[in-house]
Amino acid sequence: MGSCLSADGRSSISYSPTTPSGGGKKKPLKKKPGSRSFDSKRDEQLRRIPGRMFLNGATDIASIFTQQGKKGTNQDAMIVWENFGSRTDTVFCGVFDGHGPYGHMVAKRVRDSLPLKLSAHWEVNIGGAEGSKENISTVGSMNSEETASLCADEEAVPSVDLEEKEKLPEIFLTLKESFLKAFRVMDKELRVHPNIDCFCSGTTAVTLVKQGQDLIIGNIGDSRAILGTRDQDDTLTAVQLTVDLKPNLPGGQ
User: What GO MF terms are annotated (predicted)?
Assistant: First the structure.
């Protein structure tokens, strides 16, 4: 895969050779009338959002890159979104590694939808400004069913004891609940998606929100978040921030 950065380094255009699909005939999926036009319109609106990068490239604060291997279709998706939720000090990052026959479609769908759901629920939790809410609704992030699902989902959120709560920054508990809710709603949406068969396909999702000096991570699967830091000798050191969530891990199912 190749990439071409713009002059200001804030956007990129990528291209990749066409990859032939695997052998064997596949049963066509039933398509919901009007769903493709809605998705196309939403995709076009997402591409116009300033500070949202999802192709190979770099900005002053981040760079992203993926390259097709020898196994076939590149099923990776990625995103860096500066000024996330209309907050100038906030950045959202995500890497999604698809698997299965439709893994590339699942990964891209989660890349495009999960940040919007996270931002929407974050706004609900903190009662954000109207400008942020308008920015979310402009790109068609959530329809009435999704909004209702966010509000009506009664699954229990793991509690945090009082002593631990006092040690954590205020943003943590709000974003923790928002991450959990967004992941659950995303999972429900994929199960009923008219154009993506998720029975044997899925994706990992390692995502994070950086606000000021705070870093909050939401992770599913075995993609990893690595922090580059320096030790006492000023040697660059890699620190793994996430745990690989595999089926054989106790409590991982």
Answer: protein serine/threonine phosphatase activity
